[in-house]
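ingest -> validate -> predict -> emit
validate: passed (alphabet ok, no gaps, 375 aa)
predict: started
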Amino acid sequence: MIRLGLSIASLLLSLLSLFSAPTYHTWLLAVTVSEFPLIFMGIALVLILMSSITDRFKTAGTVISVLALVLFASPVARALLIADNLRIELNQAFKGTDVSTSTDSPFSFWKLATRGKSTARHDTLRYADDAGPAALLDFYHADSSGMRPCVIVIHGGSWSSGDSKQLQELNIYLANRGYHVASVNYHKAPEWQSPKPLEDVRKAISYLRAKAEQLRIDTSRLVILGRSAGAQIALLAAYQETEPGFKGVISFYGPADMIWGYSKPASRWVMDSRHVMENYLGGTYKQIPDRYRSASPIEYVSENSPPTLLIHGRNDVLVAYEHSTRLATKLENKGVPHYLLTLPWATHGFDYTLNGPGGQLSTFTVDTFLRKILK
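emit:
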């Protein structure tokens, strides 16, 4: 009976790789289930073996565990399908250097069980005179000589938490691929509200320009990347004003339309997204509609907007997938080169590891995007 119960629990857990998480804690579980599939596939295999040697409930336990195994493996299978056409789609979306001959693979089953290079030289620098951590950035030095492109990274955290140390694995990966990476802190809500974080990011960019010779930054080849709340700031920085040298912007599951997002909030069982937005913008949409409009990157898309890479999971329960589809439609209408990497199984924060199904595909896509626009 205990073994049957474990099989049923495993099946319920495996559903998180197929359906959106209903609560905050199941969302955290969903990240683990979908991006560390080998662990859960192994658990399911053990339960299959255990069920097969019991007398009572033998058939039921085996069937349930096999179904759980299939669901746990489904992100891997879907990642393989996406990987088949990913090179072609990226080459079509962004004209320029053909990367089809790259030796890198968009997805490898064996990589699920490995770890990447975990170190890169970096310094913590103060980009503004303000006291405190909000005026600091972490600068990862490119593992290449000469003047190098720079990727400016804006962390997430609902505009009220997080810091420049968040999800460092991609920063290290990019530095080892020959890109400088500047991971920027900013002032947070509710003490500081929009547009203060955007002003901080612009100060950081100005600092990097001023220190370009010392840091070996090629200021004609800059890209800005943001996650979640940081993606909203990054998209605003890219679209509001034409920054010299900005070649592209990358959004990981970012809220692109603050007005629409306020009208379609996340489940309160997961996060009170309206309260989060009110803290950041200073009130409800009814009270300050102009501030919601001015904080919506989608409002600033024009024919002159830089090439844009959007990465989003369909099962995102914090920032709805529709934010990216709506922005992609606007970019298409304006003729802006862009690509939306859709990960059907993935939820918010899927890139916690670069070696999971979503992590591998998104890292390959970011790397390809950078090589094409920074040629």
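The two ends are 61 Å apart (CA to CA).
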